[in-house]
């Protein structure tokens, strides 16, 4: 039963405790209810054996798959309002995976967003960070990104730290400006409610009551990802997003894919995988992504 249901059954007196991933536990409890009902209703209950268990499990699995297919066929309707922008526009998720992404921020301490360009990974994480900040759940937003050029060498960049990091975090700034406006963004930066720092400057810190956004995580090494994830302090949230098809590091140096696999099905850590169907930029972007996959 444990192997088939992918759970742990721990004996407790005349009953047992069910442990495992929440979705697996829910399915197991539904199955045990079906098993109990079947046992009570059948006239040959005294002859119930493992065959009946297996048959009912197959029946329950088929019903679950039917429900999942039915929910997939239903038109998408967002349920959670993300944020009201400074212009009064209400932001909602636009795809099922974007809705899962939002729910993961609400239910987990760390959320991984994995998927191609244009799926809203960066924008949605910034919008949720602004929501957490406005609601007083966090005191600051920390934005970080590896300083890796996309195939070009920008050379020496003049200015202070913020000015040097600006080119790398421009997509994040664009999202901030759309959510809370340019003036509020600059005010929060001046008050250090929004902090910008390259990955290399995060070592040794503990970030409490903060919303940490690591963008373009596919350009981080394994050591950098370990360092960033261990910065998580009390009452903080963290978003780590990236696209494994757009790695600018030398082959084999990126640690993003390995970290995603390492933390699959870990309590407190959510993972949302976006597909081409989640691309919400210009419709041509989806075609571009598909064509490049054919190379």
UniProtKB/TrEMBL annotation:
GO molecular function: ATP binding
Keyword Endoplasmic reticulum: no
UniProt signal peptide: none
Protein known as: PhoH-like protein
Residue stretches making up the PhoH-like protein domain: 92-292
Annotated Gene3D superfamilies: P-loop containing nucleotide triphosphate hydrolases
Key words, A-Z: ATP-binding, Cytoplasm, Nucleotide-binding
Compartments where located: Cytoplasm
Keyword Nucleotide-binding attached: yes
CC annotations in GO: cytosol
Domain of life assignment: Bacteria
Similarity field: Belongs to the PhoH family.
């Amino acid at each position: 039963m444990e192997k088939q249901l992918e759970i742990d059954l721990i004996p407790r007196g005349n009953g047992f405790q069910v442990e495992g991933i929440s979705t697996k536990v829910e399915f197991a409890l539904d199955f045990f209810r079906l098993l109990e009902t079947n046992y009570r209703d059948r006239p040959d209950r005294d002859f119930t054996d493992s065959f009946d268990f297996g048959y009912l499990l197959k029946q329950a699995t088929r019903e679950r798959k039917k429900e999942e297919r039915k929910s997939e066929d239903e038109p998408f309707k967002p349920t959670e309002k993300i944020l009201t922008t400074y212009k009064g526009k209400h932001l909602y998720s636009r795809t099922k995976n974007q809705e899962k992404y939002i729910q993961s921020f609400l239910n987990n301490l760390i959320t991984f967003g994995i998927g191609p360009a244009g799926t809203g990974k960066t924008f949605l994480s910034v919008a949720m960070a602004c929501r957490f900040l406005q609601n007083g759940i966090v005191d600051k937003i920390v934005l970080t990104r590896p300083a890796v050029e996309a195939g070009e060498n920008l050379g020496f960049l003049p200015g202070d730290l913020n000015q040097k990091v600006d080119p790398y975090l421009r997509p994040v700034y664009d999202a901030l400006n759309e959510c809370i406006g340019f003036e509020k963004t600059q005010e929060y930066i001046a008050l250090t409610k929004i902090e910008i720092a390259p990955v290399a400057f995060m070592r040794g810190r503990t970030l409490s009551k903060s919303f940490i956004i690591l963008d373009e995580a596919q350009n981080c090494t394994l050591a950098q990802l370990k360092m960033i994830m261990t910065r998580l302090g009390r009452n903080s949230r963290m978003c780590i997003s990236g696209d494994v098809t757009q790695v600018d590091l030398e082959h084999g140096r990126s640690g993003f894919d390995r970290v995603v696999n390492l933390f699959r099905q870990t309590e407190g850590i959510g993972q949302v995988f976006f597909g081409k169907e989640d691309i919400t930029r210009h419709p041509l972007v989806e075609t571009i992504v598909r064509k490049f996959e054919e190379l």
